[in-house]
Structure formats: C-alpha cells, structure tokens
Amino acid sequence: MKKILFLLGVILIGAGAFLAWFVPRAWLATPNEPYATKKVTIGEKWDATRAAQELRKEGVIGSEFGYRIYAIIDKSADKPRAGSYDLFLNDSYRSIARSIFRGPQRDEVEVRVIEGLSLMQEAEILAGYKVKAEDFYALTGDAKKPLANEFRDSYPFLSKLPADATLEGYLFPNTFRVWRDQLPLSLIEKQLAEFKDKTSGMVEETAKQDRDFRDVIILASIVEKEAAGADDRKVVAGIYLNRLKKGMLLQSDATVNYITGAGRARPVLKDLDVESPYNTYKHKGLPPGPICNPSLESIQAALNPTASDYLYYLHDDKGRSYYARTLEEHKQNRFKAYGE
Fold first, then answer.
1. What distances in angstroms separate CA 12 from CA 6, 9, 25, one per listed residue?
2. Considering the domain boundaries, does residue 319 fall inside one?
C-alpha cells in the first residue's frame, strides 16, 4: 500500500511539474522584449511535428516536445498553412499555432504614381518596396527587350504596338493599393486596367480623325512634359500638330531630356547634339515611342487640341505661356520671357 501511495505521489508531483512547465509555454507565455521576430517558412503538407522541428531550429520555441503535446490538445496546431511568417520569439504555443493555422498575413501597400513619370522613374519608386528593376522591366520591357506578350493578349490597345515596344505611355498614373507580395505584376495590371477604363472610346475617336492611337499617346506624353496647365495643354498639342503637318522639326526639349536624363528646363547645346531618334531637334516627326506616362488631361488634349495657327510657344520662369505664329514673333516672346 505504501508503494502504491508513493508511486501515486511521484506521478502527481511529476504531473504537477509537467503542468507547471507546460501551461505557461502553451497559453501564458508572452514574446521577449523588445518583441523580436523571426521569419519562419512552413512548407506544404507539414504537420505539427515537422512544424515544431522548424520552429525549434529557428529559435521561436524552446521545445519540440512541448509543441507536439500542445498539438494533441489544439488540433489547429496540426494543420499549419504553407508560407512565410514573422513570428515572435518565445510566444505561447497557442499564439504561434493560431498564426500558422490562419495562414501568412499579407501586406497591402499604397503606391503613388504621379503623372509624367517614365518607366525608369516608376522602377525607382518600386525599389522602395524591394522590387528589383530587372523584375519590373521583364514585364514592361526596356531598351533590351519588349513588353511581355501576356499584356498584348489581354489589352487590345497594346496588340498593335511595334514588336520592340515597351509599356512606356500606357501605365496610367494614380494611387493604387496592392499586395506587396504581388509587386510589380499587380501594380502594372492595375495601371493597364485604369488606362483601358479612362481611355474607353478613344481608339474609335482617333480612327475617325484618321490618326493612330499610338501617335496620340506619344504626343500626349510630350504635352505632359511641355505644357503648363490645362488650357496650355490643348494649345501646345495643336502647335505640335501644326508643325507635323508642315514637316517642321518638333524641337521638344522634353524628348531630349528623355534621352539625356538631364531634366533641364532648357537643354544646353551638347544635349541638342545627342544622336537619337528621340532627339526632335534633329529628326522630323514624332519620336518612336512615348517619353512618359501621361495624364488623362494630356491624352484628351492630344486627341482634341485647340485649333490655331501658332507654330511656336515657350514658358517663362513663372509658368506664363507665350505663343507665336512666326519665328520673329517667337524671338520677341523670348525677349519678353527671358530678356534675350
């Protein structure tokens, strides 16, 4: 009888010691200060045993055994979902098990793309979200390769672009909320969908004018960079169309800046001497592609410009516009604007 009582005592003491060790770890533990986390990747079709091994290896829990015992009590612990998790070190088994049962949390981010940015500038923005430039250009295209064919198939306005075309000009500017883990594809798709929505009916309207929609977007991209305000956009668009009709050089500073990346309001002589089809001081007609992603206002201005007989324009340092019909008038405006 004494032996039985002794054994029962040992068992009770052992059980008590186990519960004293197990209960805090299972339900009461809180993360270590200052709440350090560890990234843990859970694989497909893992059970609690395999998850416990990984959690112990990464230092998130102190005991595989304890976690496996907890999984007997809480069946959700035996159904971890694959993915990457940022887990608190030494958190309770319950908290850890529930986290990996719910699945990895997704981080939604807000990306603001303003009017007039080029592909290169958008790539720079995305770099702040840990998106590699090469991943972005693999979809949009760049000087080395064209845009991804999947977009041509999905968006009719891209289907007739030249074989070497990129998405320059077609990534509509706006503020977008996207899942961080789906960048850059999700952002590009939202921009293209926005472009499709905002320009609905414009392809047909362009055809009625006996113009090419791509030419409208190219012109709009120049207007976006050159014009100073809503009314000025339409006048400037009309001036460029007048110059095209007369076979004159466009002489757009913005197209030169697109090549040089200098961003000067008034390019210097060495900029104007750059050899490139985008240098509209040396090559007649529109450049081979857009120079930025224009706003809806600039696209509308390029599609429905203000009719005039102006052939020249300039803006002073305060953004005031000066228009001229002749070169002599243009020289007079230059003197008014710059004193030269």
1. 10, 5, 20
2. no
Domain of residue 83: give its range.
Answer: 23-102
Q: Side-chain half-sphere of 19: how many Cα atoms within 13 Å?
A: 6
Closest CA to 94 of 72, 80, 77: 77
pLDDT in tens, 256-304: 999 887 766 677 777 777 889 999 999 999 999 999 999 999 999 999 9
The two beta strands, 321-324 and 312-315, are: antiparallel
pLDDT, tens only, 183-202: 999 999 999 999 999 999 99
Pick from 89, 86, 73: which is nearest to 23 by CA? 73
Q: Is residue 303 part of a domain?
A: yes
Torsional class of 186: left (φ above 0), alpha (ψ -120 to 50), beta (otherwise) = alpha
How many domains does the chain fold into?
3
3-state helix, strand, coil in the chain (%, to 5): 50, 10, 40
Give the separation between CA 16 and CA 310, rounded to whole angstroms.
94
Residue 74's domain is classified under what CATH number? 3.30.1490.480
